[in-house]
């Protein structure tokens, strides 16, 4: 046995076995702790996956963990359809000022802990005066002691603020919206920097991160209820496609329209667009004012008119309303005829916005029997409006003047009326009586047909060709038992 062997302590078998058991126990304990930690981690990850099954959701929660450990109410928003990029990319402080702070909780042991306990117990007796002599004034004493543990906890601090005012903040990333702020007609929430009135700043299930569906969002500020209850709805309104016509941020056009009013309407109404090249255009149509006549959302009068015809037209044409109050007038305003029966409301190639020129527009209703005889008569070169007024007159049927005055506008009076002097012509004044027609005598009561006859007699005579005595004998003949006219 060497000297070294003599100096080495001799351990019993029991001591060796106990030490080995102690090390094994500590190892088992450490393994259990590690297993528990692993299970907690797996559970947390599985819960997150179960919320959406989306890797982006898991990544978003992990990346924003620093903020989300306090703002846990925001975690479900990672599941929504559209997530704001800064929110997803852990860039909360791009928009918000940081406001977290760390609270430290320290636990003491030894003399300090005992000293503070004793101070609490004896504060009610005079010895308190003695204790205060040893007090440092900051809640600890000079008796010393050791820190047992210190725990740091991150908590919410002062209220977070946006790093810039609302409208400036959003423009940092959405600079393409900037020019719309100075548009002639900006949307109020956009102009006032209240982007979050319409958009959720973190995430949303709606396109463009809207706070709710378009149909619900727009009507929260724009009360369309009464218009939605009308008989006819504009198709975009019925489908709540407000942004088909309106820009939600700003526009150069009144009503924040996406285009000039007429051009905007043309996109859905090509049949009206083709009229823009015609020679005569209705004022509202030419001047980009479709809504002067049409309601843009809903109406009780088709096609989306602001009022029924003819009242709508009378708003700009009051003189025409007066004409239709006269004794003889077209039946406008009845089931059979409206203003648009003769006039196109947008544009035509004919004066007065008529659908046809000269007599063609009249023949639409008066083809028989008038057109059949008029086009071959002596009056064929005279348009209908040469004698008739189109709306209303004090002289029937819609004549511009009473007979025979209306005839004298083309036929010299001296050649026909004995009252003109110089000739002894047949009287055609109502002062005389037509014994055949049994009414006041005029040019057309018995002798002349102003629209011509089927036989096509000369001088528009009704009954016989010119020169025949039969024309005269209709009135100037002897009736047996009664003398009428002249007895030859």
The amount of beta strand, in percent, is 5-15%
Mean pLDDT: 81
Number of strand segments: 16
Spatially, the strands of the biggest sheet line up as 1-5
SS summary, helix count: 22
Q: What overall form do the CA principal axes indicate?
A: rod-shaped
Distance between the termini: 190 Å
The residue ranges in which pLDDT falls below 50 over 5 or more consecutive positions are 1-16, 127-131, 139-144
Structural class: alpha+beta
What's the multimeric state?
A: single chain
Radius of gyration: 51 Å
Q: Largest sheet, described in full?
A: 2 strands, antiparallel
Helix content: 25-40%
Describe what you observe in this structure.
Helix content is 33%, strand content 10%. The chain is of the alpha+beta class and 488 residues long. Among the domains are: 55-97, no CATH class; 114-147, no CATH class; 166-306, no CATH class; 426-488, no CATH class. A two-stranded antiparallel sheet has the order 1-5. Helix 2 packs across helix 3. It is rod-shaped.
Task: Draw up the topology in text.
Layout (H helix, E strand, L loop, with lengths): L2 H5 L5 H40 L2 H9 L1 H4 L13 E2 L1 H4 L3 H4 L4 E10 L1 H12 L4 H7 L12 E11 L9 H6 L6 H4 L3 E2 L1 H4 L11 E2 L9 H6 L5 H4 L3 E2 L1 H4 L11 E2 L9 H6 L3 H4 L6 E2 L1 H4 L11 E2 L11 H4 L3 H6 L4 E2 L17 E2 L11 H15 L17 E2 L11 H4 L24 E2 L4 E2 L29 H4 L4 E2 L2 E2 L5
Antiparallel strand pairs: 1-5, 2-3, 4-7, 6-9, 8-11, 10-12, 13-14, 15-16
Helix pairs in contact: 2-3
């Amino acid at each position: 046995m060497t000297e070294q062997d003599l100096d080495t302590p001799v351990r019993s078998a029991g001591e060796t076995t106990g030490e080995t058991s102690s090390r094994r126990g500590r190892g088992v304990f450490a393994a259990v702790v590690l297993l528990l930690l692993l299970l907690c981690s797996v559970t947390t990850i599985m819960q997150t996956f179960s919320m959406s099954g989306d890797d982006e959701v898991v990544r978003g929660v992990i990346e924003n963990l620093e903020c989300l450990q306090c703002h846990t109410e925001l975690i479900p928003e990672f599941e929504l359809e559209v997530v704001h990029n800064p929110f997803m990319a852990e860039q909360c402080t791009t928009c918000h000022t940081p406001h977290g702070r760390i609270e430290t909780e320290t636990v003491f042991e030894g003399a300090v802990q005992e000293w503070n306990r004793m101070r609490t117990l004896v504060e009610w007796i005079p010895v308190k005066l003695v204790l205060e002599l040893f007090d440092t004034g900051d809640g600890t004493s000079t008796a010393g002691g050791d820190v047992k543990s210190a725990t740091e906890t991150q908590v919410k601090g002062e209220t977070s603020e946006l790093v810039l005012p609302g409208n400036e903040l959003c423009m940092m990333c959405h600079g393409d919206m900037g020019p719309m702020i100075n548009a002639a007609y900006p949307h109020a929430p956009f102009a006032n920097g209240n982007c979050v009135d319409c958009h959720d700043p973190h995430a949303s299930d709606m396109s463009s991160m809207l706070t709710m569906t378009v149909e619900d969002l727009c009507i929260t500020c724009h009360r369309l209820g009464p218009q939605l209850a009308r008989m006819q709805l504009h198709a975009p309104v019925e489908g709540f496609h407000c942004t088909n016509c309106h820009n939600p941020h700003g526009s150069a056009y009144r009503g924040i329209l996406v285009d000039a009013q007429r051009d905007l309407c043309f996109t859905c109404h090509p049949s009206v667009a083709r009229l823009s090249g015609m020679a005569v255009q209705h004022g509202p149509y030419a001047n980009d004012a479709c809504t002067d006549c049409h309601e843009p959302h809903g109406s009780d009068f088709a096609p989306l008119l602001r009022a029924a015809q003819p009242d709508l037209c009378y708003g700009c044409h009051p003189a025409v309303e007066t004409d239709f109050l006269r004794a003889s007038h077209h039946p406008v305003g009845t089931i059979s005829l409206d203003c648009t029966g003769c006039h196109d409301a947008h544009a035509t190639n004919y004066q007065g916005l008529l659908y046809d020129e000269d007599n063609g527009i009249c023949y639409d209703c008066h083809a028989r029997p008038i057109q059949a005889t008029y086009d071959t008569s002596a009056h064929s070169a005279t348009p209908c409006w040469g004698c008739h007024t189109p709306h209303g007159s004090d002289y029937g049927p819609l004549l511009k003047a009473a007979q025979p005055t209306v005839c004298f506008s083309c036929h010299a009076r001296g050649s026909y009326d004995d009252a003109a002097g110089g000739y002894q012509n047949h009287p055609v004044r109502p002062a005389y009586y037509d014994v055949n027609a049994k009414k006041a005598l005029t040019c057309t009561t018995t002798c002349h047909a102003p629209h011509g006859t089927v036989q096509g007699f000369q001088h528009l005579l009704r009954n016989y060709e010119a020169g025949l005595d039969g024309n005269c004998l209709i009135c100037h003949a002897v009736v047996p038992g009664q003398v009428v006219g002249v007895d030859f």
